[in-house]
Structures are given as C-alpha cells and as structure tokens.
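Reviewer 2 asked us to include a model.

Predict the structure of this chain.
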Amino acid sequence: MIKEEHEVAVLGAPQSQAPGTTTVISIPRETAVPDHIVWSLFNTIFMNSCCLGFVAFAYSVKSRDRKMVGDITGAQSYASTAKCLNIWALVLGIFLTIGSIVLLVSVYRGAYQMSLEMMKNRGY
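Predicted model (structure tokens):
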C-alpha cells in the first residue's frame, strides 16, 4: 500500500466537501496625523526666514509627541500649526531668494555700467 493510501484508509475520507467558514475581524487603525517633521526640518536648515522653520519644527515635534501619547486632537492641532508655519516659511524663503537674486543682478549690473563709464572717461 502506498503511504498516501494508507493515510486515507486510517484517517478516512473527508466528511464534508463544503468550504469552511472564515471570520474576518477588521481592527480600525489609528487616525493618521501627518506631523510634517521632514518639511519642518527642511525649512529649518535651508529656508529659515524669520525663524519660522525652527518654530514649525518645534510644533512638529509637539505633534509627534501628542500622537505618541494618544491625544489625536492635540496632535492634529499642532500639525495644523506646523503646516501653516511651513507654508509661510516656504513662501517667505522663495520671495527672499528671488529678491536676493534680483538685488545681486541689479547691483552687479550697476557696478559694471559704472566701471564702463569710468573707463570711458579715462580714455581706455
């Protein structure tokens, strides 16, 4: 007798061909609260105009702390404040960067024109 046939003979044939019922339990996950900590860190390091990036980073850390404690509403409040501060830091950083570039170009252009005038007056 083959091993499989012996096991069937000992155990017997399956009693029912109906599929077994399964139960699925759905456990709701915690509400995902973004703390914007990476964005805040970026603004702190690169575009820290008026220290808004640092303040946003502090609020992001507070949001993460509240989330770890389980205070979802507090975490959402701190995350909302951090997001607002990050937006302002980003907008001010972009404006200051563009303004600095425009200022440098105009200063160098004026210095170049002044040096051309000085050379022209001296006879070069």
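The helical segments are 3-11, 37-45, 52-69, 72-122. Residues 104 and 110 are 10 Å apart (CA to CA). We have added this to the supplementary material.
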